[in-house]
Each structure stands twice: as structure tokens, then as C-alpha cells.
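Support request from a user on the community tier.

User writes: "When I paste my C-alpha cells into the form, the page sometimes reloads and wipes my input. The last time it worked, I copied everything first. Here is what I submitted, just in case something in the input itself triggers the reload:"
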């Protein structure tokens, strides 16, 4: 099969089958490779792949991957770059607002932790006989992942158009 298909075609077949790690290993196109790494949950590799391209979409996708790595300030910088290239992009503006809120919430949380009560050990009282609450979990990571996946801008049409443009530009330089 390998001798009849280009690396990007092989990557696309693996991608369509849900083998994102295998697809990332095959893709030559950095955008497709980045998307495959992103879908495989390898966000650091996705950031590196998206960094090879300088388009609004690559900066946008790079910001999404950085946000998954909890590198919120870097994600904001990537979204700023995306908005410089495409100023009226509503999804990028929405993600920027979300990131800014997450950064503000994180800062507030850190400030609250720094303001620990100044109680001496003898002043602490425990109410072991008091009301007992129920333990629960909120899967914040999954909610964040779902939000970012809904907002990632990857369509086969866009990626193929970008690939053909890159190949045409490479052919024109030769």
C-alpha cells in the first residue's frame, strides 16, 4: 500500500480509522500531523507540529493544544497571533475570552491560597460530629477537552486547500 499512496494519503487513511497516533507518524503536512497528535491527546507534539505553519488556523489550533497543557499565557499569545491574521474570527475571540477568564480564576485561586488564616494551632477546632456532606467529583478536564474539540477549526477541505497551496508554492520556487 505504501508504494501507491503518498504519506499524507496514508495518514488520512489511518486518521479516518481513528488511528490518530499512526496517522501523525505518516502525515507529511504539519497541519494534519498536528490535528492527528491533538486527537491522539499528544498536545505537546501537536503544538510543535502547528508551530511549523504560520497561519491563523495553525495559531488557533496551537492555542487549543497549549490550553490542554495548562500553558494559558502561551495559548493567549497564540490566539493573539491568530487574531492578527484574521481579526474578525468569532471562535478565536470566544476562546480568548475563555482563556482570559481561566487565567483570572486561576489568579484568584492562588490569591485565596496565599491568604491562609492566621490561626494558632490551639485555635483550630474540628466539628467531627457535625453534618457530613457527600463527596462528589466534577470532571473538569473532560469538560474542557469537549469545549476545545468543538472549537477546533479543522475541515478536510481547508486542510487539502492548504496542502495544495503549499505544494503549488513549492513548485513555483523550483
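"...and here is what came back when it finally went through:"
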Amino acid at each position: 500500500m505504501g508504494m501507491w499512496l503518498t504519506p499524507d494519503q496514508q495518514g488520512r487513511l489511518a486518521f479516518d480509522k481513528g488511528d490518530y497516533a499512526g496517522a501523525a507518524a505518516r502525515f507529511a503536512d504539519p497541519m494534519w500531523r498536528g490535528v492527528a497528535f491533538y486527537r491522539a491527546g499528544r498536545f505537546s507534539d501537536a503544538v510543535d507540529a502547528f508551530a511549523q505553519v504560520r497561519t491563523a488556523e495553525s495559531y488557533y489550533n496551537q492555542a487549543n493544544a497549549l490550553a490542554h497543557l495548562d500553558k494559558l499565557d502561551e495559548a493567549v499569545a497564540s490566539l493573539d497571533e491568530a487574531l492578527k491574521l484574521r481579526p474578525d474570527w468569532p471562535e478565536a475571540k470566544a476562546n480568548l475570552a475563555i482563556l482570559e477568564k481561566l487565567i483570572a480564576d486561576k489568579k484568584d485561586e492562588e490569591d485565596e491560597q496565599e491568604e491562609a488564616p492566621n490561626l494558632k494551632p490551639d485555635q483550630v477546632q474540628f466539628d467531627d460530629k457535625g453534618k457530613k456532606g457527600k463527596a462528589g467529583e466534577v470532571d473538569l478536564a473532560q469538560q474542557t477537552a469537549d469545549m476545545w474539540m468543538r472549537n477546533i477549526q479543522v475541515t478536510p477541505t481547508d486542510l487539502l486547500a492548504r496542502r495544495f497551496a503549499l505544494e503549488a508554492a513549492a513548485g513555483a520556487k523550483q
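Agent notes: The reload is a front-end session timeout and is unrelated to the input. The CA atoms of residues 72 and 146 lie 17 Å apart. The chain has nine helices and no strands. Escalated to web team.
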